Prior knowledge:
The protein has 286 residues and is an alpha/beta fold. 34% of the residues lie in helices and 16% in strands. α5 packs across α6. The protein is built from eleven helices and nine strands. The strands form two sheets. A six-stranded parallel β-sheet has the order 3-2-1-7-8-9, with helices on both faces. It has a three-stranded antiparallel β-sheet with strand order 5-4-6, covered by helices on one side. The structure holds zinc ion. The site of zinc ion has 8 residues, from loops.
Amino acid sequence: MSPSSSPSCKRVATSLPSPVQAYLQRLESIPTFRGSDGLWLNYTLSDLATPRAFRKNPSKVWQFYHYRREIAGKALPNPAHIALALFSQPDQRKEIAPDAEFTLITQNVDGLSVLCSQMLFPSTDPPIIEMHGRLFETLCTQCGDRMPNRDSPICPALAGTEELVKSHAKERQIPLEDLPRCQKCRGLLRPGVVWFEESILHDEEISELVDQADVALVIGTSSQVAPANLFAHSVAERKGTVAVFNTEPQGIGSAHFYFPGPCEQTLPTVLLGKEPDKMNDVLQQD
Ligand SMILES: [Zn+2]
C-alpha cells in the first residue's frame, strides 16, 4: 500500500504535528519541554512559551530559548528529514507520484528540514513552510523586524547559561539591556517562534495548499494539535487520500493508509523504496 494509489494526485501536503516534532528532536538528543529526559521540568509551557511569559520575564524565556538554540544548532538531520528532502525533489517522486507537487508544512522550529534540503540541494528553494517560525530567527518587539540569526551565543550575557540549566541551577536574572537587541532600533528582540496564544505563520498559504491537496501525509499524531490536525480531515472530506506515519495508531480515524513505526524507518521505505540505514550515506555523499 502506498500514497501513490491516488491517480489524480496533484499536490501532496505533509504536516509534522508537534508530537512528531518532539519525536524528531528526541532522535537528535535534543531535550524537549516535557520529555522524560527533559530539563526545565520545573516550568510549565505557560512559564516559557507565551507572550505573557516573555513580558513577565524575558530573561528566563531567553535563557530557555538560548539553551534550545545551542542544542539544536549542533544537531544534524536524521533519516526522516533526509527522506522528506529527497521526496521534495520531482525526480525522486516519479515512481510514486509522477505529476505531484509537494509541500512540507512543519511545526518544527529547529530548522533541520530546511538545513537538510540545503545540504542536499543547495541550488533549490526547499518547498517547506515553517508554520511555527524558527528558533534561529529573531523578531523585534519594537519595530517588528525579523532576522535570521545563528549566533552562538546570541549575545554575551547569555553565554554559558545553558550550562546552568544542565546543572539544574536556577537561571540568571539578566538585565533587559543585556538581552538580544535589534540592530535597527535597539528594541528588545524575542525568539522568532510562534508561541501558545499566537497565530500560526503563513496561514493563508497553508489554507490554500490544504484546500488543493488531494493527498495528505500526516507524519506523527494527527489528532492532537490544531490546526495541523484539521489538514488531513479537510483533505479526507474532499475525498482525498490520507496516510498516517506514526508509532501509535492514534488519530488515524480518517486515514486510508497507516504506516506504523518510527518515521525515520517508515519514510525512507515507503516514500523512496530505500533502506533507512542508507539515508545517512545520502547526506555524506552530498
Ligand atoms: Zn527593531
